[in-house]
Amino acid sequence: MDQSKPRPARPKQTTRARILDAAERLLGQGGAGFSMRDLAEEAGVSFATPFNQFASKAGIMLALSERRIDAMRGQLAEAALPAATVGRVLVAVDIASAVMLETPMVSRAVMAAIGAPGEPPGDVSARSRAWWGEALGAGDDLPAATRPLALEALPRHLAVAFRGVLSFWTAGELADALLGRQARAAAAAVLLGFSGPDDRTRLLALIAADAVGLTGPGGA
After folding, report:
1. What is the largest CA-CA distance in the chain?
2. Same domain assignment for residues 35 and 77
3. For 171-216, what is each residue's pLDDT tens digit?
4. Minimal CA–CA distance to 66: which of 17, 1, 104, 13?
5. What is the sign, positive or negative, of the torsion defined by CA atoms of 10, 55, 125, 30?
6. Burial, 26: exposed, middle or buried (Cβ in 10 Å; 0-12, 13-18, 19+)?
7. pLDDT tens for residues 41-60?
8. Domain that residue 47 falls in
9. Among 9, 17, 172, 183, which has the minimal tally of Cβ within 10 Å of its Cβ?
10. 220 or 96: which leads in pLDDT
11. Domain check: are 35 and 143 in the same one?
12. If you count DSSP H runs as helices and E runs as strands, how many of each does the chain have, helices first?
């Protein structure tokens, strides 16, 4: 390696990112009950800085949720998506599940926090609906008679279905290994009423496969 050449400068991390990274480290160590003082110390900032950036711990948890949705959007944009709507959605399900499983302890803590009532409420629902809308795409291959309703309703119902699966996973009632499978089956159930005959066969197979063995430990 030529030592005479200067190394390219690394992008400077923003204060906001430093605080979120510190929160992820604390959550990853099992510190879901961390204080704002703990967070400021971990991030190497003044005690007031997390408040200035996020207003509260609840604001930090909402920002960590947004991070995960942003990561999903980035991966979806880079993925080689199928042309068919059902295929696109199933790829999106796999991406979303994988993002949540990258740091499961942190993701569970974030989900538990944003599931509690907050003042003011966050915009996780709107961001999630937008993500599933991107996953659906134009829906050109959906049955024409119900396509407008599908494009209107499916982002909301896919968001609710995935959030429902995450709630059981967050509570420890669903093992990590089953998260993706149940998320796929939940999405399949939502898509079923808006799909053509060929897609229905595939979707019913996913739902049937998920029904096998879910009554054992770590199942439903």
Report:
1. 67
2. no
3. 999 999 999 999 999 999 999 999 999 899 999 999 999 887 554 4
4. 17
5. positive
6. buried
7. 999 999 999 999 999 999 99
8. 12-54
9. 9
10. 96
11. no
12. 10, 0
